[in-house]
Amino acid sequence: SRRRRGRDADIPRRRSSSSRAHRYPSHYVELARRLDTGMPLFHFLNTLGHFVPGIICAWWFEQLDAGDRADACAWTDVAPVAYTPLAYHLLWALRIAGGLVLDHVYLKRPRFQWYISWATGTATHLVVGRLVARSCAEGISLTAAAGW
After folding, report:
1. pTM here?
2. Region of residue 46 (left: phi > 0; alpha: psi -120 to 50; beta: else)
3. Which three-class secondary structure state does DSSP give residue 86?
4. What Å distances lie between residue 33 and 11, 59, 88, CA to CA?
5. Digit-coded pLDDT (tens) for 105-115
6. Contact 96, 23 (CB under 8 A)
7. In this structure, which of 5, 6, 16, 73 has its CB flanked by the most CB atoms within 10 Å?
8. Angstrom distance (rounded) from CA 91 to CA 137
């Protein structure tokens, strides 16, 4: 294997568990390079931006008593939580990129990869949205709505 030099020398070649990184192992390396960071900082920021907000929101929602949960769920009559986050995400993609292919937002990738990413994101939005919707409709915690 060729030895890398310069700015890329500190970026290790790793495979991630995501489907995109399995097909294109350099995907995260390219994003880190674009942000002018090393891989550890990139993975930290990626986790901070994608996973931590959901964990904090789920923890907060789980801590609410029945009255506070009802107040937090009051807006779901106007914007159905099972579908609104997905609709927002799709509208964002239309506004930013004119469709589901986000080559000019992130990195250029084959079309099928974007569709796989969107299918995964759609499933996540729908599962989590329906879980929160059930929790709000029945006045129960998220863990109870999930059957845990």
Report:
1. 0.71
2. alpha
3. helix
4. 8, 33, 29
5. 888 889 999 99
6. no
7. 73
8. 26
